[in-house]
Amino acid sequence: MQRFVSGLFLVMMLSFSVTVFAADPLAAWQPNFDPSGAEYTYLLSTVAHPAIEGGTVGYRVRDRIWEESHGRLYVDYRPISQLGGEKDVLRKLKMGAIQGMLCSSVLAPNVSPRLGIVNLPFLIDSFSKLEKFRQNEELFHEYGMDADAKGIMVADFTGYGSYGWATKTPVQTLAEAQEQLFRIAQAPVNVDLYKAWGIQFTVMPWPDVPQALQTGVISGLDHTPIVCNITKKFTVAKGYTNINYAQGLYIHLINKSWFNSLPEDLQQLLSRVIKEESEQVRALTEQQQQDQIVAAKASGVVFSDLSATDKAVLVNLAEPVVQKWGEKIGLDYLNKVRNTLNN
Fold first, then answer.
1. Rounded alpha-carbon distances, angstroms, from residue 148 to 142, 202, 253, 254
2. How far apart are the C-alpha atoms of 232 and 296, rounded to whole Å?
3. Cα separation, 320 vs 316, whole angstroms
4. Cα-based distances in Å from 83 to 31, 41, 74, 135, 189
5. Are strands 164-167 and 220-223 parallel, antiparallel or unpaired?
6. Exposed, middle or buried by CB within 10 Å (0-12, 13-18, 19+), for 136?
7. What's the rounded Cα separation, in Å, for the pair 302 and 242?
8. Is 164 helix (H, G, I), strand (E, B) or coil?
């Protein structure tokens, strides 16, 4: 799974330029308490920006844990890659130099191939399926088993929406999509998927996307409405095709040795609050996607759907990719997830 290291560049894809936001983008998120007296500190990193609901979970957990632990445990949340890029942060997490991270679902298979199941096309392809997957405790337990054996706990996850195509001109058919040149994430499963679809693509770091769109080097990109609208990609890409083939996630990973060093009552508190706040944030993310679509439409972005026939072609072409990567994840587990979600 070493090739998944290329997913590092999702850091660039999701750690948005501070210039898009306020001069101090985290000013509104400063704690209203003095954490200096905390008995324990949980250092938590992410590439996410709290303008995305999925990135707010660290602050929500921080404030609740402080209150409910009566100041014993402080969650020191560091979003927007303050502690470095994802690859470096993951290394620090494994070493115990930091205690937790909200890891992109593209990079997470570097911990365990099974964590990549959420990236497979048309498997967990809606908010409802994502929630059904998470609420099945057997599936979620098996999802994190391999990572747990390696010393990394999978506590929960939040997200940043459903993947589709943002294009400079509206794309309503598969034939029109095949005339485009898409920027895709630097992850092997995405490369395999676009090859299977017969759609032109290029792998490009996120900071290069704005100029590439403006100059015509690319004509579209594979991403979510939330990210495209918040990062102003819709100022150039005025079309969006709802493909909804996967959900982008931030997976909450914790160093197991550190977690086990906490008193039992704080272990239970942290686990419970992370679970409750992650569930709440997932619901907020679904609403945020709807809100961002409304805002994008108001600014002139045209949203389209492929015909049922074209969508079926994409699903059929993607199946060999699912099977290929399912062998790395575990076909028994893949089939169990698929059967559960389809029933």
1. 10, 35, 10, 9
2. 10
3. 8
4. 19, 15, 17, 31, 27
5. antiparallel
6. middle
7. 11
8. strand
Return the pLDDT at 26. 83
Q: Are residues 212 and 63 in the same domain?
A: no
Q: Are 314 and 197 in contact (CB under 8 A)?
A: yes
- pLDDT score, position 49: 86
What tens digit of pLDDT does each residue of 253-292 get? Answer: 999 999 999 999 999 999 999 999 999 999 999 999 999 9
Cα angle for residues 289, 294, 300 (degrees, 5° grid): 125
**Cα angle vertex 249, ends 248, 250, to 5°?**
145
Token pair belonging to 54: 């999925």
Count how many domains the chain has. 2
The predicted pLDDT at position 86 comes to 86
- Residues of the domain holding 203: 164-245+297-342
CA dihedral 77, 119, 185, 235 (to 10 degrees): -80
CATH number reported for the structural domain that contains residue 307 in this entry = 3.40.190.170
pTM listed for this prediction: 0.87
Q: For the chain, which ranges sit under pLDDT 50?
A: 1-22
Is 48 contained in some domain?
yes
What the block records as the tokens of 237 is 């890409």
pLDDT of the residue at 109:
86
| Kind and range of the H or E run holding 12 | helix 10-14
- 314 plus 280 within the same structural domain: no
At residue 185, the pLDDT reads 81
Which residues neighbour 161 within 8 Å (Cβ) at sequence distance 6 or greater? 224, 225, 226, 227, 247, 248, 285, 288, 289, 292
| Alpha-carbon distances of 229 from 37, 61, 126, 147, 235, rounded to whole Å | 40, 26, 19, 34, 8
Distance in angstroms (rounded) separating the CA atoms of residues 202 and 217: 10
Q: Determine the Cα–Cα distance for residues 224 and 240; give it in Å rounded to an integer.
A: 9
Tokens 């954490």 sit on residue: 35
Q: Are 254 and 152 in contact (CB under 8 A)?
A: yes
Structure token pair of residue 287: 């609403």
